[in-house]
Amino acid sequence: MSIFQHLLFLACVALATYAQTMTGFAFGLVLLGLSGVFQLASVSEVANVVSVLSLVNAAVTLARAKPKVNWPLLTPAMVSSLVGVGVGVAALTWISGSMAVLLQLMLGITILACAVLLVARTQPLAQLSSRTSSVFFGGVSGVLGGLFSSAGPPMVYHLYRQPLPLATIRNSLLILFSVNALVRLTLVTGQGAFMASSFWLSMQALPIVIGVTWMARRYGTADSMKTVKRMVFVLLLAAGLGLIVPASRMLATG
C-alpha cells in the first residue's frame, strides 16, 4: 500500500466502526466492501484484519462485566456456526486460489443482502425459535464468518426477532462473533494464510476503532442512529453493486 492507500484504508476503518457502533453490525462488510471497491487489499487480507479487530473489541467489552446470555438459544447456533466457520475458511482457500473474481461476486451479493436486512422491519416472535432454526442461522452465519469474517447479518436477523431483553441479544451476538473470530484466526494461522501485512494493518486500525467507538457512544443520539442507518444502507448498496458489476462482467467475458 502507498501512503495514500493507507490513509484511505484507515478512513474506511473509521467509517465502518461508526456504522458498527450505531447500527450494531456491518463493520466487516462495510470495510470489506470499501476496500474491495478502492482495491486497497485482497478480501482474505481484510477479512483477517476484521477478525483481529472484532476479537479485540469483544475482549474489551466482555472484560467490563459478566454478560447475561440465553445459553439454550445460543448453544446450538454456536455449535453450527463453528462448523460453518470451518466450511467458510476451506471455501475461501479454494476460491482465492482458483477464482478470486467469484469471491468478489459472492462478497458483493452478501453486502447487498446485509443492506436489505439493515432496513427490513422484523416483528418479534411470540416465543423463542426452535433449536433447528438456531442451527440453521448459526450455520449460515458461520460460513459468512469463515469466508469474510462477517457473520453478522443472519444471526442479527435471527436474534433480534426473539422475545428477549436487548442486552441479552447484544451479549449473545458479541460472544458468538468473538468465538467465531477466534476459531477463524486459529484456522487461518494454521494454514499459514495470516500474513504479516494483516497484523500491521490491524495494529494501525486499532486506535481508530477504539477512538471512533468511544466518540459514537458518547455523542450518538437516537435521531443520528436513524440517519446513520440510511447512510449505511446507501453505502452498502453502492459497495455491493461496485463489486458485483465488474465481477459479473469479468465472469461473462472470461
Keywords:
mainly alpha, 254 residues, 10 helices
Explain what you see.
The two termini are 28 Å apart. By secondary structure, this protein is mostly helical. Helices cover 82% and strands 0% of the residues. It has one domain (3-253).
Question: What are the SSEs and their pairings?
Answer:
Elements: H1 3-23, H2 27-37, H3 43-64, H4 71-98, H5 100-119, H6 131-148, H7 152-159, H8 166-190, H9 196-219, H10 222-253
How many helices does DSSP assign?
10
Question: Mind describing the biggest β-sheet?
Answer: none
What's the gyration radius in Å?
17 Å
Please provide the count of β strands. 0
Number of domains: 1
Q: Cα distance, first to last residue? A: 28 Å
Structural class: mainly alpha
Mean pLDDT, all residues: 84
Strand content: under 5%
User: Helix amount, in percent?
Assistant: over 70%
Order of helices and strands: HHHHHHHHHH
Runs in which pLDDT lies below 50 for 5 or more consecutive residues are none
How would you describe the shape? globular
